[in-house]
Design a protein that fits this description.
Length: about 700
């Protein structure tokens, strides 16, 4: 059945007529297009519909992107050099005129775009000095060369990179696609069984691929997109659910069926407050998993401050009661140390052995920790990446907890569970709430538990937005808070492109803060990413112990730090932070009983998007709501938290922020197929199994090629 090796789609792009070595290299280097298949599945990101144009006289600045057809009637250069220079082209379609404005690539545009020729212009109308214009619209340069038989009125535009564009324009893309389809159209194998095609009125795969590149009509384009989205979602879900039913389902898990002395003692004597209903529910869910004989693979989502650490601790006690060791891995030393301190505090006077292992643990100490782990005398090991080093050998690892999951790559996690013969139970915890549709896809192989309730008595953090002119007022407010005994965070953006810049922000900030809050009356501590671990610890401790009033930091404090007396979070240049990050930062305050504040400082001029983001922060403290909005605003590929771990696959056509309904529907279809035919061995389902296997083979193939 496996047609993988002789499939023409695995041919290298170099052998495609019209491609050649140079283009092939660029296509691979810039877009990772290596084979015929890669190119075939590289879809246009938009289309020019030559039948739909907007008349210039109907344009107004509230319209989204529009397409115009007409000519350039005049061109002039305005302004001086130094970034101010611009090219203004007046465009007319006979119904009116509009200015097209360019700031970059002036020479090139002047050279390419001439009067007395018709152009298709695509752009967003905007209002400037009371006039409607278009800044940097795309201009389609008509070409004599006709792509041939597939040509239609709807033309695909392929996204490219600057480098690639200078070697080959969209026309070349179209031409290559044309040559490709000519070659392979009759050799594309269907991937879905006939009964699904019929039932859901789907185009066949060859029809869909033809129409996604060369739509024969708007209707066929819609159906092509639908079919390809269906395919994409279907095989992601099938992959997850089929594997879960066969492989994961067969993975035997350690049975933790005892709730013994330590858990009970802790519950009765050491637990300083009562658990929230949500905490109780998720603990029950995990106990059920761990007692079932199957290996637990669970994601615990809960907003910052919802009490995930305590939940983790309680199930680690269950592991201990069943004679197993556990570990908890945190993304930073600061956080690992804090977990260690709070776990030790929680377990006061109990017979549970806890150790801390991080990059800065001394060698002599390490040796002791290693041997105690191997002997089995350590019950709970807390640490950072240091836990996955080869020297770390457990006697009986039964449970691995990973905190703030998105900071760790999949491979790092896998290393952790390879540390014992029987796969330990795994709990992954994250404070970055992920919308349901995304969770179903990204974490499809994990069961999800959600803590949707904060411990009682927490007041929502009051969030306010200020621009720089209000700085004095803000400082005055900070002084009042410090007088009342509160502590304050001031966070500066981390600028990844330039670490020196990043540091400068913080340095300038530090100077102005110390001027406004002079010692010895006020004590200010600093933490940033470039400090040595000991210095960081020193500063953190200064703040955590209440000796410092103000903590100045880059976003290193983002993750998990817990100082309940800190009641104000000032975020400088807040517009430079993403929503998820802002939400995380805000979560650092509001942990004690006092009213807390998050003050977002911003520049005067904010882009529309930045303003929307900051206003959303002001309007809600609900992390799930913020995550949903974030996904809508930016698309799922950019959601913080998934970017770092990377989606386990590439979505070519589906947009999880818009295709949630289709995803849910497809998921149900997959579930019902697997319910009736779990091994996919019925004749009509064989195609599903072989496509799935081929997809795996392709993954391996693309790794080696
Ligand atoms: P996160 O979910 O962000 O990791 P933590 O586990 O750090 O949250 O908990 C935040 C704070 O809330 C800690 O000081 C913790 O001791 C406290 N806490 C946890 N559960 C409860 C509860 N049920 N009632 C009151 N306080 C709680
Ligand atoms: Mg935490």
């Amino acid at each position: 059945m496996n047609d993988f090796n002789d499939n023409i789609l695995n041919t290298k792009i170099m052998y495609l007529p019209g491609a050649g070595q140079k283009r092939a290299e660029l296509l691979y280097g810039e877009l990772e297009i290596a084979t015929f298949r890669d190119l075939l599945y590289y879809f246009p990101f938009r289309y020019i519909d030559r039948t739909h144009f907007c008349a210039v006289r109907d344009i107004n600045p509230d319209l989204p992107y529009v397409q115009l057809y007409g000519e350039i009637v005049s061109a002039r250069t305005e302004g001086q050099g130094g970034g101010k220079k611009r090219l203004v082209m007046r465009f007319s379609d006979g119904t009116g005129t509009i200015d097209l404005v360019f700031f970059q690539g002036l020479a090139w545009i002047k050279e390419k775009i001439k009067p007395d020729r018709k152009y298709t212009v695509f752009g967003k109308p905007a209002l400037f000095n009371g006039q409607v214009n278009m800044v940097h619209p795309e201009i389609d340069i008509p070409e004599a060369e006709n792509p041939g038989a597939f040509s239609t009125n709807i033309n695909g535009i392929y996204s490219s990179t600057e480098k690639l564009r200078s070697y080959m324009g969209n026309k070349v893309f179209v031409k290559l696609m044309f040559n490709l389809l000519n070659l392979v159209q009759n050799k594309i194998h269907e991937t879905l069984p006939g009964y699904l095609l019929n039932k859901y009125r789907l185009l066949t795969l060859p029809e869909a691929l033809l129409n996604i590149h060369f739509p024969q009509s708007q209707e066929l384009l819609v159906r092509a997109r639908n079919r390809l989205k269906f395919d994409e979602l279907f095989y992601i879900q099938l992959g997850i659910l089929y594997r879960r039913a066969t492989v994961a389902g067969a993975t035997r898990g350690l049975v933790f069926d005892r709730v013994g002395d330590r858990f009970n003692y802790f519950f009765e004597h050491n637990l300083p407050f009562s658990l929230t209903e949500a905490q109780k529910r998720v603990i029950r869910e995990m106990r059920r998993d761990m007692g079932s004989g199957k290996q637990m693979n669970r994601l615990l989502q809960g907003d910052v401050g919802s009490g995930k650490t305590l939940v983790a601790l309680m199930i680690m006690l269950i592991a201990a009661d069943n004679g197993y060791q556990s570990c908890i891995m945190a993304p930073t030393e600061i956080l690992a140390a804090q977990h260690y301190a709070s776990v030790v505090q929680f377990l006061k006077e109990m017979d549970v052995k806890v150790s801390l292992l991080t990059g800065s643990t001394r060698k002599s100490e390490r040796t002791v920790i290693y041997s105690k782990l191997a002997e089995g005398t350590t019950d709970i090991l807390i640490g950072t990446h240091a836990l996955i080093e080869d020297n770390v050998q457990f006697k009986k690892l039964g449970l691995a907890v990973i905190d703030e999951q998105h900071r760790f790559g999949v491979e790092q996690r896998a290393k952790l569970w390879n540390k014992s013969e029987t796969m330990p139970h795994v709990l992954v915890m994250t404070a970055t709430p992920i919308p349901r549709t995304l969770a179903m896809t990204v974490y499809g192989d994990l069961d999800v538990s959600i803590i949707d309730e904060l411990p009682p008595g927490r007041k929502p953090v009051k969030t306010l937005l200020f621009n720089d002119s209000k700085r004095l007022r803000v400082f005055g407010f900070l002084k009042e808070q410090i007088e009342q005994g509160r502590q304050i965070y001031i966070v500066y953006p981390l600028i990844k492109e330039s670490e020196t810049m990043d540091y400068k922000f913080l340095e300038d900030g530090y100077e102005s803060i110390v001027r406004a809050f002079p010692p010895p009356e006020y004590v200010t501590a600093v933490v940033h990413g470039k400090m040595k671990a000991v210095d960081k610890d020193f500063s953190m401790n200064l703040f955590a112990s209440g000796k410092a009033d103000i903590m100045i930091a880059t976003s290193v404090i983002e993750v998990g730090v817990n100082v309940p007396n800190a009641s104000v979070m000032v975020i400088e240049s807040a517009e430079r932070f993403g929503l998820a990050q802002l939400h995380q930062l805000r979560g650092r305050v509001g942990r004690g009983a006092d009213q807390s504040y998050c003050l977002m400082m911003s520049g005067y001029k904010l882009s529309k998007e930045s303003r929307k983001r900051l206003e959303l922060m002001v309007s809600t403290c609900d992390g799930f709501k913020i995550a949903e909005e974030d996904m809508k605003m930016r698309g799922p590929g950019d959601i913080e938290g998934t970017q770092q771990s990377g989606l386990p696959f590439k979505l070519r056509i589906t947009d999880l922020s818009k295709d949630g309904e289709l995803l849910e529907a497809v998921r149900k279809i997959v579930e019902s197929i697997l319910l009736e035919d779990p091994a996919l061995c019925r004749d009509e389902n064989k195609i599903l199994k072989s496509t799935l296997e081929n997809a795996d083979a392709q993954k391996d193939f693309s790794k080696i090629s």
